[in-house]
Fold this sequence. Notes:
eight-stranded antiparallel β-sheet
Amino acid sequence: MHQTKRQPRTMGWRFAFLALVLAVTISGVVRSLWLDVYYIPSESMEPLLQGGDRILVSRTDFQADPIRRGDIVVFDGRGTFSPLNSGKGPLMDGATGLTQWLGLTGSDTTYVKRVIGLPGDTVVCCDAGGKVTVNGVPLDEPYIFPGDAPSTQKFNSVVPEGRLWLMGDHRSVSADSRSLLGAPGGGMVPLERVIGRPVQILWPLDRFAPVARPPVVGPTTQNGR
């Protein structure tokens, strides 16, 4: 009788454990191939994205329609915006990665910025009107944080092949391509480091809303970029 009573309970725990493993596996596959969730740790993309937001990121959007000026991208900043190695050791890196994967903390190496310059573009600050220009064309940037200037730091850079010039919308608090002009890569991020495009604000619930793909900014070419 004792064995008979315990067997269903044991089977129930096994079933629950297998279901949990299956759910985590499916979630891992989905998040590595199609959709992922990221935590916004700073105010650098205000007013569109605010510190504390959780966003859903599509990993496949740019496969069908390549990156354009004006797009918002989530990217791995290791080797450009941050060191390749954290220096914390594998155990700490693993624990940090778990909390980031669960959406509880932000990542020190994953960033969200707006694409201002594509490969081959010349990005300059600023023209006589105080605007950033791309290939000599002033940018109309309605997304910039109210009261911020397009940039208070002067620059004149040609974006190398395979890289992007990225800037935050809250220009006065954003560490972006402008901040790393003297660093390896000149603050410009390799295309292969782009993870995807934010498509939805998930949390907090009062900010639950889709993130529309913005219009192209700056000069256009025959391919629409």
